[in-house]
Write a structure and sequence with these properties.
Radius of gyration: 22 Å
Number of strands: 13
Structural class: mainly beta
Oligomer: single chain
Strand content: over 45%
Mean pLDDT: 93
Number of helices: 0
Largest sheet: 13 strands, antiparallel
Distance between the termini: 37 Å
Helix content: under 10%
Length: about 230
């Protein structure tokens, strides 16, 4: 793997902008024979405001040579063949609010190409609210529209996932996360209780469930208990 990075920043002495600049980043992957298998190259303009909120606009170039059959829609249709090569470009816009606020948000939109000369439009968003000092509430949402040639044709799906973190004390924590996937028509639920009974030592109790929505039918359930103890020798 090779990951070059080149960044040029500018720091205005006045105004609302703390810094802005151009960044080039890339990840190149090779197999054991040093033949390229895939890479992603990104040219970005990044603007950071004095309140630490950011705006990032990126042009992305992707190349993938498939090492195994791949269904680009994850719908169980025919898969793209091993060894096929796919190149496409896309535009990414990311807006992140100031992290110190009780109300936070992160918004992202991706538009451009996709596998097999297809097209992709995706919207991602996270909205969070902190009830100081005990509760942190967040909602994650994703909408993706894929336009591909036959047999895939047009596919769109939505993910919605509320999350709640509760801090009872500085040693007791509770987290619950629910995700609805309208592509698979199921709901994932994860509930975690954490007790930090001493520094770097924890007891976790986690309940997970995956269920079909209509009719409501649990596909699997699991209860996991994890205990860690830091032994300082």
């Amino acid at each position: 793997k090779l990951s070059p990075l080149l960044l040029r920043n500018f720091f205005p002495k006045k105004g609302e902008i703390l810094s802005h600049g151009i960044q080039f980043a890339s990840n190149y992957y090779f197999n054991e024979s040093f033949n390229r298998t895939d890479n992603e190259s990104m040219l970005s303009y990044i603007m950071t405001f004095r309140n630490r909120s950011t705006i990032t606009i990126s042009g992305i170039n992707d190349y993938v040579k498939l090492a195994q059959p791949f269904d680009p829609t994850n719908t169980g249709r025919d898969s793209l063949a091993i060894g096929t090569q796919h190149r496409y470009n896309s535009l990414d816009v990311l807006i992140v609010s100031k992290p110190q606020s009780v109300f936070t948000y992160q918004l992202e939109s991706i538009f451009g190409g996709y596998y097999d000369n297809g097209h992709r439009l995706s919207f991602n968003g996270t909205i969070g609210y902190r009830v100081q000092p005990y509760v942190n509430i967040a909602i994650n949402a994703n909408y993706t529209d894929l336009r591909l040639p036959a047999p895939y044709n047009d596919t769109h799906f939505t993910l919605i996932g509320p999350k709640v973190d509760v801090t009872f004390t500085n040693t007791l924590y509770f987290t619950t996360y629910v995700q609805y996937d309208d592509q698979q028509k199921n709901i994932n639920t994860n509930v975690r209780f954490q007790w930090r009974y001493k520094p770097a030592s924890d007891l976790f109790i986690v309940y997970g469930e995956n269920s079909l929505l209509t009719p409501y039918t649990p596909r699997f359930r699991q209860l996991v208990v994890k205990w860690t103890y830091w032994l300082n020798i």
